[in-house]
Design goal:
With 371 residues, this protein is α+β, with helices and mostly antiparallel strands. It is built from 10 helices and 15 strands. The structure holds zinc ion (ZN) (2 copies). One zinc ion (ZN) binds next to loops. The site of one zinc ion has 8 residues, from loops.
Amino acid sequence: MPRDPYEVLGVEREASEQQIKKAFRQLARELHPDVNAHDPDAEAKFKEAAEAYEILCDEERRATYDRYGHDGLRSGGWAPNFDSFGSISDLFNAFFGGASAGRAGPAQGGDIAVRVEIDLIEAAHGAKLPVAFEAIERCERCHGNGAEPGTPIETCGRCGGAGQLQAMTRTPFGQMVRTMVCDACHGDGRVPKQPCGECRGRGRVAGKRELEVDVPAGIDDGQRIRVSGHGHAGEAGAPAGDLYVLVGVREDERFVREGDDLITALDVAAPVAALGATLEIPTLEGSASIDLPSGTQPGEVLTLRGQGMPALRRGRRGDLRVVVNVVVPRRLSTEQRELMERLNDSLTEENLRSQESMFAKLRRALGSQAA
Ligand SMILES: [Zn+2]
Ligand SMILES: [Zn+2]
């Protein structure tokens, strides 16, 4: 049983046509198989999203679904009809238009996605990273034209040299005459009489490639960098696709990242918190010293302005927030116990009075650093 199309697109049942279109567009971009090659389910998810969109973008179909569900649509004779599109990128192009939709000539190369992992320090300072990946390259034996060197190239018999074929397809926007790239000559209009022995006439071969990629300072986990023109080679004369570098930032046990801010915890023995001290803390640039005022309370936050992560494509840096974790001494010796008892006996109301309200204390105890 197919899923609820509203659920698939993540929209409310009252969603407007615009909202539905927007939701599908966004989903489709995420799932586009050229970009999402690392997710084996992307194609199935894309088809599901396209089917949901096809139901919801048509007023009559949507009303039928709202009243009778999927069964109502099926008994009304409707069925998703995506098989006639051939490939998933053809489907994508039919919805949104794309580089190869309706365009004669050799197809552009596909996009490639690769993953890299960096640590937080590299993310803070930016890095040049060598990235290795497999890509389709132009065949050197035939220089990309697909013909065995020295043999002739002839007009394509399938498309008569036009490089394209016409087909009728049904889309949510009605019947469309779609122009497809000829599958015999791949849009070139000409085919080699004797295919190249190296690439079997395709003009392209798979190869390994290495590239140095600039990772900008401030990049966050899960962001991606587009390197234009470094994807798969296009068919003869067509541009190459793009390379997408998906960046993973490893966790750093000293810092928690919150946007451009970094948070670190500083363990301080209770007597030190009471007396005040100058202490060492880790920063992205090594260690720095920080003045802990006397009477610092558990959970208090000391902020070092501009010691956080650089903001991506903006000048200023975030802050480093130091959360003071007051450690109460355990397992006291007899002598320590006596000292503690004497200290405790000497404490007056004045030592324990705080300016904070009960609510402020609770907020701080519950971890809200804004308090
Ligand atoms: Zn070749
Ligand atoms: Zn052809």
